[in-house]
Amino acid sequence: MKKVFLPVIITFLSTLLLAMDPLPGICDDPVKTKETTAMKLTVADAVFIALTNNVTLRSAYLDRYLNRIDLQMAERRYYLPTDPALTLATNRVSTYVQPTAGSAADRIEDMNYNGTVSATLAMPTGGTFTFAWNNKSDRLGAGQNFNYSSDWSATFKQPLLKGGGLDNAAYSVRIARITEEKNILSLKDTITSTIKAAITAFRNYKTAERQLVIAEMGLVRAKSLYEYNKEMIASGRLAGTEIVQAQADIASQETSVINAKNGLDDARLALVQALYIDKKISFEAVDENQQLVFPPALEEAVSLAFQYRTDYLRAIQDLEARKLDLAKNKFNRLWSLNLTAGTTDSAAATTYNTYDTAFRRAIGNGPERNWNVGLSLEIPLVYMTSDMRAYLGAKTDMEKANLAFEKLKLDIEINIQNAVRNVDSNYRSLLSARQARELAEKKLTIEQEKLGAGRTTNFQLVSFQRDLQTAQLSELSAMTTYLNSLTSLDDTMGTTLATWKIDVKKEDDRIPQFEKAKTSGLTNQKD
Fold this sequence. Notes:
The chain is an alpha+beta fold. The protein contains 14 helices and 8 strands.
């Protein structure tokens, strides 16, 4: 089922266009004869070229690099407690005071040194270990004392109720993983949008090609009737005024050709824009003949939607995030009970010698180290604390998310039902339009024979010619509508990427299938 809709689109595009030539042998496709150097372009080429050149998609893949870094940082903080957060700060300040005029004293120089090293280690249990070392030295003038002081501390804090526990500590990394999954789904949405735009632009261009063919064939028929009328008038078998109807039909058909050519150029530029290629490039839309495959049954389509639709999968991820948020806020309603332990040490000295001497003397004459251990308990005296408010908010968000999820499931089922019904209805409309075109061809053939026998009028024949042209355009419109309904069903089920065999992986920097587009010769020349 993953490969259903591309063959359907390509097969009907080729089969129906081949069946629409009402007058075999009139001429070849005028677009093809005029653009002999145009590059052939299949719908697969259009998709892969768009995937290669699309700027929005490129930007999305650039963001993937930062997304992976965010996830790696979150996981490293949780799984690698030996990777602490380190901070080093140091500064030196020198102050010079010049002697006053006429004074014999030298200038005064004051110097201050400060250095701080700190490290914080987060534990998987929710606790933290912190080490800090502070150093300070100053001299109040040249030849004066060096004053040095140093102190360091090591502190461990472990929450036993609020804020503690393995699950609570893993909250950040779980949320990061959910965010990563949602980033992947957003990337899939961007790829799907690019594919849809390329298919739509390709189909519009191919439709515009066929509209021009139909318009030019109508012009050929109008000119043929005009020449026939001239011969009949010259032989005296037709009144001279009858030529006016044929001339009016030629003028009308020429207008249709002009409009069709303008529409074709619009469609070509839209396709160029969708593929992001040089606007001077011309191409010929090619049909690919493959066996028709019918869409799935309603139950199977709904099952596929629940498996592939990104909005459904994103809603599941949102529910998981809400559950984690609710569990965290529920746990944080507890009292705050923390186990703390630590040790501190400090030293200071003054010397007339160098800074090194002051440092060694301070370290050698330091006091005994201090130790501390204890428990701290905080009990809120009111019920509606900020933690309780956060819990109630998380509980409400969870209930709202469940309601939205159930509504989304119902919406998906209804959307799938509508999409499947539209495919069936449009397919039957297409068969009716094809039959109407075939009957219009037969009517015109009979009317041409009657005109040769003098049993009808120019007006009647022109009307039948226009009926045929209208039937051809109706069949073309029905075909396009049917193909669009197939594409819409593919999109509604969320199987577009599966149809095109595109697998988005977390480690990918780009889609591997992009290489196919590069071999087509239509990739962006700017690159």
